[in-house]
Amino acid sequence: MDPTTRRRRDDPPAQRVRLRALAPDDVALRAALVQLEPAPHQLGASASARQTLPAADADPRRAPFAVLLDAEPIGFGVLDRGDLLAQVVDEPERAVLLRGFYLTASAQGRGHGRAAATQVPALAADLWGPVAAGGPALVVLTVGTSNAAAQRAYAAAGFRGTGVQQRVEGQEPQHVLVAAVPQPPRATTRLSASGRPCAASALRQGRESARST
Ligand SMILES: CC(C)(COP(=O)(O)OP(=O)(O)OC[C@H]1O[C@@H](n2cnc3c(N)ncnc32)[C@H](O)[C@@H]1OP(=O)(O)O)[C@@H](O)C(=O)NCCC(=O)NCCS
Hints:
Blueprint: E1 5-7, E2 17-21, H1 27-33, H2 49-57, E3 62-69, E4 72-80, E5 95-103, H3 112-118, H4 120-128, E6 138-144, H5 148-156, E7 160-166, E8 174-180, H6 198-201
Helix pairs in contact: 3-5
């Protein structure tokens, strides 16, 4: 199996869903992905690949990926180690941001989003390697406070709330969620003086304007 392709084997329905990091020469897959659209009312939660794939291709710190159901493309997302991370975490070099993640409208509501989100931390490990080699310790994302489907999918996939809410003018408040990136067996989590994992304690508590009230 391609090292950037991940599949869960413990849950029969989830076995059909996998993530595939996009290579420049994935011409047919790319053409299919830009046809995928969330429902029109969901475009505030995630833009479609028609916009986000070209933006990712233009930035070497972003890694676009496909969500496949068997061989069929049903969704898209981007892992981003760029400047936006600094608005979400205190140690951006130890994190990667999941953005632009969505399933095409007809594929939603069948457990595929949950299955795909579960595989994102492993994809990040495949793409950037362990923390010891400069890879990320955390996948971080923001999700709208009213986006119940996404919150439930991320929770089922192992993402946890940080207690931080981000407020950006013109958007609904966003919860900041994180999930640990799997590390090789011998790697250990460094603990801070408080005994909490450093990466978790590094999460920005929010600028005044970004705090939950
Ligand atoms: C978010 C998204 C990827 C989830 O994928 P999905 O395949 O629809 O979700 P799943 O079928 O895996 O369901 C996940 C959970 O959400 C629940 N759910 C699904 N649709 C829901 C809805 N409309 N309202 C409330 N809960 C819903 C499911 O019951 C399930 O909960 P459970 O795990 O407690 O049983 C998908 O809905 C999507 O692409 N949405 C539009 C874009 C978006 O919001 N992206 C995320 C931006 S942060």
